Amino acid sequence: MSRLVVVSNRVGIPDGSARAGGLEVSIRPALKKRGGIWFGWSGKVAEDRTGAAKTVEHDKVSYITIDLLKDDYEEFYNGFANRVLWPILHYRLDLAEFTRRDLGGYFRVNQYFVENLERVLRPDDVIWVHDYHLMPLAQMLRERGHKNRIGFFLHIPCPPPEILTGLPNHERLIPALCHYDLVGFQTENDANNFSRYLAIEVGLKRAGDDAFHYEDRIVQTGIFPVGVETEAFARLARRAVNSQFVRHVMTSMADRALIIGVDRLDYSKGIPERFNAFERFLTEFSDWRGLVTYLQITPRSRSDIREYADIARQVGELVGRINGTFGEASWTPLRYVNKAHSRTALAGLYRFARVGLVTPLRDGMNLVAKEYIAAQNPEDPGVLVLSRFAGAARECGAALLVNPYDSEGVAIAINRALGMPLEERRMRHEANFAVLVKNDLTHWAERFLGLLEGPMAAEAEVRPAVRRVGGAG
Fold first, then answer.
1. Residue tagged active-site, from 90, 133, 155, 213
2. Is 363 in the active site?
3. Could you tell me the pTM of the whole model?
4. 443 an active-site residue?
5. Which domains does the chain have, with CATH numbers?
6. SS3 letters for the chain?
7. Which of 467, 461, 469 is nearest to 181 (CA)?
8. I need a surface site. Which of 18, 37, 189, 268 has the fewest CB within 10 A?
């Protein structure tokens, strides 16, 4: 079996911390099972590039990290990745702040990744690149003569060509993905949007239902919805609900029903819209006042970017208004916590919560929705209220699907979830849980790598060279 080399912006080095991000949770099982290398940025900003890459060996995996310079961090990470790619790929052209300096920094850092990565590559390594930070990586490796099988997975949404073409220099960046052998997406909609772009903007001809001819190669696309370790998370939740922390929270609820939301502080998560919906719920369904508490756990992120500081201020004002209007000496309707919690703590809170409120304006998948389902007591499950614009909605169809922009509709869904009969709650949970088991996280990695290394790889060796046709790429 070829060695697996995972490349991502950040590397999840095992350090004993209890909370892991979605990308880390997704990748770790494949590396744990197979061994290999995880390569990426250390998260540190250095004075110069004289320092060598650092390696940590743990459980058959080599974690190799490099530092970035201050200009790299500002232009590549804070700049093009998070001020241009992130908003545009989340359908928010209005929030993109493009500069050629940041674009140059984005390509420069990708080149820096390549220069360090190729020092440890072997000819038969299988390379799996993750997310929007590293879109041009395969093209740069090909230009340096590397012929490895290289796959790419986009964890966030892929918008339609009408939005992708609003990305400055899109004709340089998006076609670069064609240098991967396999490009994976969360949903059918994302894959179709990418395929439409290749056909319309680049003028590529199909090489089958899910593949295209590009210069002298074939690029395959695929749909790989990221899952969770369903049974393992269910076991974790069963244990965690009896932990001291969760019991303390339950006691503080004083027998009130708990609504829970867990999101990073980001404008794509729809937190202000969700708070407006909760305010509408308390207004329209006043019988629930004093009987329910909404706990929103929202760790801050990217606080040095203006848009994130703006949303933090907006959310804080909404919390004050809602609690000031409806709160009483003995009851706080909305608890807003800017602190990360461990997966164990969250698992216990999910199991205890009567309603899981997951209403992003746009999300690639959203694993909180799946973790909430996995954590429930099947005999007395809670209800998931889920945005139809989250990738998870394609699988979790038995949730109460809502339009996050419609505050009245979300308020009605919260009321319905809180009052839902036990039989219906069980039926919905059983249907959602069955899908999660079928699309368990372990199957996700196996499916992607199986296609990247499987018959497609052998066929690529014998296909005739077909030149790219037409288009602006």
1. 155
2. yes
3. 0.92
4. no
5. 4-226+442-460 (3.40.50.2000), 230-439 (3.40.50.2000)
6. CCCEEEEEEECCCCCCCCCCCHHHHHHHHHHHHHCEEEEEEEEEEECCCCCCCEEEEECCEEEEEEEEEHHHHHHHHHHHHHHHHHHHHCCCHHHCCCCHHHHHHHHHHHHHHHHHHCCCCCCCCEEEEECHHHCCHHHHHHHCCCCCEEEEECCCCCCCHHHHCCCCCHHHHHHHHHHCCEEEECCHHHHHHHHHHHHHHHCCCECCCCEEEECCEEEEEEECCCCCCHHHHHHHHHHHCCCHHHHHHHHHHCCCEEEEEECCCCHHHCHHHHHHHHHHHHHHCHHHCCCEEEEEECCCCCCCCHHHHHHHHHHHHHHHHHHHHHCECCECCEEEECCCCCHHHHHHHHHHCCEEEECCCCECCCHHHHHHHHHCCCCCCCEEEEECCEHHHHCCCCCEEECCCCHHHHHHHHHHHHCCCHHHHHHHHHHHHHHHHHCCHHHHHHHHHHHHHCHHHHHHCCCCCCCCCCCCC
7. 461
8. 18
Task: Say if CB 420 and CB 409 are below 8 A apart.
Answer: no
Comparing CA positions, the residue from 326, 330, 335 lying closest to residue 286 is 326
Residue with tokens 């794509």: 268
CA Rg, the chain, in Å?
23
Specify the length of the chain in residues.
Answer: 473
Backbone angles phi and psi of 402, in degrees to 5: -135, 160
- Burial category of 53 from C-beta neighbours within 10 Å (exposed 0-12, middle 13-18, buried 19 and up): middle
Per-chain mean pLDDT for the chain: 92
Query: pLDDT category, 468, cuts 50, 70, 90?
Result: very low
Mean pLDDT score, 54-62: 92
258-289, pLDDT tens digit by residue?
999 999 999 999 999 999 999 999 999 999 99
Measured CA to CA, the distance from residue 358 to residue 399 in angstroms comes to 10
Q: Which of 67, 181, 363, 440 is catalytic?
A: 363
Phi, psi for residue 235 in degrees, rounded to 5 = -65, -40
The residue-averaged pLDDT of 160-180 equals 97
Q: Burial, 60: exposed, middle or buried (Cβ in 10 Å; 0-12, 13-18, 19+)?
A: exposed
Q: How far apart are CA 78 and CA 101, in angstroms?
A: 12
Separation of alpha carbons 269 and 299, rounded Å:
12
